[in-house]
Amino acid sequence: MSIPVVTIDGPGGSGKGTVSQRLAARLGWHYLDSGALYRAVGLSARNKGVSLDDPAALAGLAQAVDIRFQPAADGRPAPVWVDGQDVGDALRTEETGHLASRVAQFAAVRTALLDKQRHFLQVPGLVADGRDMGTTVFPDALLKVFLTASPEVRAERRYKQLKEKGLDVTLLRLLGEIRERDARDAARQASPLRPATDAEILDTSRLSIDEAVDVIFQRLQQRL
Ligand code: C5P
After folding, report:
1. What is the pLDDT of residues 209-221, one digit of tens each?
2. How far is the CA of 16 from the centre of ligand 1 (A)?
3. pTM of the predicted model, to two decimals?
4. 5-221: CATH number
C-alpha cells in the first residue's frame, strides 16, 4: 500500500507553513518544509561565496548540503541545522527568502533536491508544504491543496510573524518583497508556482488557521 501524502502548495504568507504543521500534528504524520531546503541552499551559497548566477555550482551545493530538522517543541518553529550548524532565525529572514527564490529558479538545483524531499515520505503519512509539491515532487498525492490569500493579507501576516521575532521590518517593504517573490516564482521555467490541475484551491484571506486546518482535515477524511 502506498504511503498517503497531502501536498499544501501556495505563495508565502498564505498560511501554508502553520496549516501544514498543525495538520501533520493532528494526523500524527511527518512534515516536510520544502522551502527550508531552498533557504538552506541559498544561505549556504552566501556563506560559501558561491555565485547566485552559477546553476552548476549551486546544484553541487544542493546535492552536498546536509540539512537536518529537529522536532519542534512548544509550537515554536523546528530548529534547522545546515552543514552541522544551527542556523537559528537566519533561515526565516526575508533576505534568506530572497536568496532561496533566486537559487530555486534553476532546474538543476530543483533536481538535486528531489531525492532529499522524497526521503520524507515515511509511514504513517506525510504533509508536504511548498510550491511544487503537488505538481512535481508528489504528483500522486492523495490530496492536493493550493492555499492562497491576497498579497495585502499575506504581507500583514508576515509582518506580525517577523515583529514577534523582534525583526525590524515595514509593511510596505514586505508587500513589495512578496509581490517580487510571487512574480519570480510564477514566471520561472522550472516548476513555476501554480496549482496542480487536480488541486483544491482554498483562499485563506478570511479563514483562521484552525478553520483552514479543519477544512483540509475533513476533505482528507473523505479520501482515506
Ligand atoms: O516557503 P518559503 O518562503 O520558505 O520558500 C522560500 C522560497 O523557496 C520560495 O519563494 C520559492 O522560491 C522557493 N521554493 C520553491 N519550491 C518549493 C519551496 C520553496 O521554489 N517547493
Report:
1. 999 999 999 999 9
2. 11
3. 0.92
4. 3.40.50.300
